[in-house]
């Protein structure tokens, strides 16, 4: 698979999105319980995951119906809202604060009757909305649906890496987290009605997938609706309508949004001039790029880069 200067693939839009998110700094820990117990956590707006290794429990996310999760089940939430976790319905839930070490709920003595592996990780915040646009609020993959075995192995590798201090730990964790995200994103049994408009829906439509691959392969091209419609085998009005229904925006708007995502990533890294960024994402000049960036983001590229650098240093 070839890559461009951004480290992105030239054939796989989903891989491009994951590359820009740069997941890192994983926390993975065992969570066990015995008897009757219940805990409540405030929202922390970071991606989180859980794999149930033994027993079962209930999870109730804010604004959602409680879900029973059992041995072999996998949960992924792209932005963790307030939630409660409990052994039995009706149990009083005690407020808790997230910790990075092992957690024991309920009776502290004796072998646990509930065991899970839970974790969270960071993503590049400048493009975090891309992830939220890809996923439903919650992905629940049941053990009976056959995908958690592979996910479980990936999560165990993450847990093993978190527990060691071997050289190269951070890059290994980043790659494992990328695999975790891709596995969850391409899980075919997600209810299509639960997926928000976005790239994931678009990639499941063969006609739109051809267009998306072409756009991601050459973002510098001066794409027109007519060219993209021909590629999809549709009329201009039909491709515009399909894009709107499936991705939440028209085809040219999608091109513009992806260009801005690449621009924001380049600006936060700080290694490229405005002229180079403009050329790489399809603008005729740094001035044209700056005008488009200011119109969409509300500030010029230079100020955006300074603010991003300030946020990182805090």
TrEMBL record:
Keyword annotations of the record: DNA-binding, Transcription, Transcription regulation
SUPFAM superfamilies documented for this protein: Homeodomain-like
InterPro entries reported for this sequence: AraC_lig, Homeodomain-like_sf, HTH_AraC, HTH_AraC-typ_CS
GO molecular function, one term: DNA-binding transcription factor activity
Keyword DNA-binding: yes
Pfam families: Cupin_6, HTH_18
Domain HTH araC/xylS-type: 209-307
Superkingdom per UniProt: Bacteria
Cross-referenced PANTHER family: HTH-TYPE TRANSCRIPTIONAL REGULATOR NIMR (PTHR11019), TRANSCRIPTIONAL REGULATOR-RELATED (PTHR11019:SF159)
Organism: Microvirga aerilata
Protein known as: AraC family transcriptional regulator
